[in-house]
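Q: What does the assembly look like in three dimensions?
Context provided by user:
Components: two
Sequences:
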Amino acid sequence: MTAIVQAVELTKQVLSGDQPLTILHHASFTVEAGESLAILGASGSGKSTLLGLLAGLDIPSSGSVLLNGIDLFALDEDGRAKLRGELAGFVFQSFQLLPALSALENVMLPLELRGVVNAASRAAESLRQVGLSARGHHLPKHLSGGEQQRVALARAFVTQPKILFADEPTGNLDAATGAQVIELMLELNRAQGTTLILVTHDEALANRCSRQLKLSAGKVV
Amino acid sequence: MNILRLSFNLLRRDWRAGEWRVLLLALVLAVGSLSTVGLFADRVRQALQQEATSLIGSDLRITSTRPLPSIYQNSAKAHGLYTVESRSFPSMVAFREQTLLSEIQAVEPGYPLRGKLTIGDSSEHDANGIPERGTVWVDERLLRRLDLKVGNEVNIGDQRFNVAARIVKDIDQSIGFSSFAPRVLMNMRDLASTGLQQEGSRITYRLMVAGEATKVAALREELSNKLSGNERLEDVRDARPEIRSALERAEHFLGLAALTAAILAGAAILLSARRFVQRHLDSCAVMRCLGAQQGQVLRLFMYQFLLLGLFAVLLGCLLGYATQAALIFFVEAMRDAALPQPGVLPAIKAGISGYALLFGFAFLPLLQLRKVSPLRVLRRELGAPQPNTLLAYGLAMLVLGVLFLWHAGSLELGFAVLGGLLAGLAIFGGLAWLILIGLGAYLTNLTSYWRHAMNNLVRHVRNNALQVVALALGGMALLLLTLVRSDLLHGWQDKLPPDAPNRFVVNIQPDQRQQVFDFFSRERLPKPHLMPMVRGRLVAINDIPVNGDSYSEPRARGLVEREFNLSYMEQMPEWNELVSGTWWDINGNGQLSVEEGIAQTLGIYLGDMLTYDVAGSRFTAQVTSLRKVQWDSMRVNFFVIATPELLSDFPGSYLTSFFLPPDKVRAGDNLALELPNVLVIDTGAIIAQVRHIMDQITQVMAAVFLFTLFSGFAVLYAALLATQDERTFEAAVLRTLGADGYYLRRLHLAEFTVLGGLSGLFAASGAVLLGWVLARFVLEIPFQPSPVIWPVGVLGGMATVTLAGWLGTRWLTVLPPLAILRE
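A: Here is the predicted structure of the complete assembly.
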């Protein structure tokens, strides 16, 4: 097994008024390729901050992240974006589909940003895998929450990422729909051998991952 | 390629969602208004250029107010060139009970040497030759105004003529609106029989020459040293310089008027670009998260702007084309002139201006999108990156400055207009801001929805002040062209007493004076004051020769290049006012009194010695007084009056003006019939004609300013959209808390009523202020603005803005609140 994500002494401080507030304290851990890691914790524990740092969406106050052996924060903003494009897929609580694009176009988006030629056919195949072949030309606002999240899954997996970052993927869904989405996500994850880093406050969901990392008040416990 | 396709897709989707509507509208209006003016002016300019070769009907033309000596014709023939002579003069054309002042041109066979006349009645064709003897060809204007038909007979002077054809396309004449008089073409051999060619008649003699270019050049070279003071050589290069410069001035003025629409469009573009940025922060964050680099994001949106700009420019040019076509259709004189189709250059200029506006006002907001943090996908509370405000406004101002200079054609005018406009906007904007803040602070004892409305107005005070100014500017332009214009016209008309002269009688020969007095006595009209007139040319000031090259100003050049009317008399006319110096010293002879305006134009001062050439003889006299003349008094006025002994021996004619009561209108026609060489000019009709043309020009300006008004609405619309998300959310919260649709409607209407009322108040104030400036400094008349402008401005502003606002927000009262709050 090789380490695909390495967090080293990750710390994030923000200003609260005039006072510095530490929202993540010296987090260090490693995630092996193919592993699934659940980051657990109560609201405000620093889960999303940690996910943002691991994906290079935010910059730490100190510490570093190695993604596939590359030091994320030695890169500039564009370098991190490029690396994300090559390695990572994302699923968010609020789906984050572009409202102006159809389901198919949303799935094509990361491929087009990479300059992939047959983006449309690959996106259509990815939509088929999540069972939404028939809804490709619908705009997000015409899809249900569950369908939107399945489109987000198709978009996340269409580039066959090495790592999937998922932030509360069932947070905006009812229990039954949420369960279906999770099944689908884990199945695609298994099929593609993707490393999964999942933020959740749902213990049951966390337990379906191979490893759990608990956060409390910004500290790994 | 993928980015371009993605841009196109996003553009298409955003278009469907209405994201681009206001930006497109603003840009289309800006390009539309600029291209209307550009295309319109281009057609007139092209007409001038096309006419240039046929304008003088020859390659070279020698023009004089006296018969031309035969040596010129002999020289031309010696060079192997063709020649033809023409004579033109104003005269009355009589048909049945009516007479009409027209420009008569008598021509020889062979006319024109260059270009072709098109004549016709039912079918149009190139003329083969010139009118047969006893016949005339007349233009459409004469046919229409005298209700005349081809085949009818008209009287010109002592002779009766058959109207043989209608002139469709003329030679040797400018485009319609520059010459008010209809045109009549006759055979030179008929001229003598009309009795109109007499000593002192206002005849222009022309010798037209054509042939090989080198021979024409040689003749030009040879003749240029031989011409006397009242003779001029003209070729196409000299054709109509005064019209060209008038056109340029008009184009610059209208161009600047069009730019007021562009400024407002810029404000609308800025507001909608900001909204666009706000609404695309999430999409950008997602794209950044999915690996898009900053350059890719910027390109993605830049392509959208470029594509949208292209679409807007095309639509704007189409709108401009349609508007100028409609304008030309409605302006009668231009419709008759059959102007050529416009070229593409004005459209390209408008297009470039449109793109400049788009980038000047939208580029920096757009740059923000590039810097959106990808972390926004997890933390939506992260706002947009803060733009560099100074840079953003600086770029916008730079673009506006360049556009104004480009369209004004002069640094001075461009800066003056832009500076004035921006100062006006800043003052109105500042006042609007203060008033809104003041209303919010002091009007606290209001019913709840009014208080709430005032709070909203104060909360978005910057946006609201901008809306007030934008709408006020559009409204001001409209009020100025409607109410204030009619006040100014009334002010001007009131200046004239009801018995102000309405007829000019010119070309009275010295031996006809008694006949004229008898006629007036017979018709029981007051004895006219006949004033002598001699034509002369200024050749030197203080012994320094002057000619066209001595002056740079076109008006001054024109004045010294041509002969103008001089008079002599013992007493200063009572309607003149002495400004400096003294009227004739009893013992002194050889004195001149000069009108102050022309003295200023030509640089003439009290005490200067002026030398005039009259019929080949010269005299020099001292300027002993300067006079102020009421040019619009409808009385006979002269630039230069001399002591009698200077001019009384020169050949000349007499002229007078008099009031002809409406019940004696026939007397004017009788005088023209009794003395055919005498020209009776109906100044009332000419004023009506000038006013008609002014009205039509005003319509052109009103159309240009309509773009300003619509752009004002584009700003209102953009401002409504800019606060739409907040309004939507607020409406949802209020409805959740129990506010009904009625409350929300009243809340929104109260806001728009205040905005509209303030806009109307500023529009009326601005229009009255500008009207006063025009009256005081340009027209020099007292200005009494009609008090109706205030209620019209304020109530009109309230009504239109409230209606527009209500249309833009009425859906807020019917949306289910939960749907909005969930979003």
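Follow-up: Residues 1-56+242-409 of chain B form one domain.
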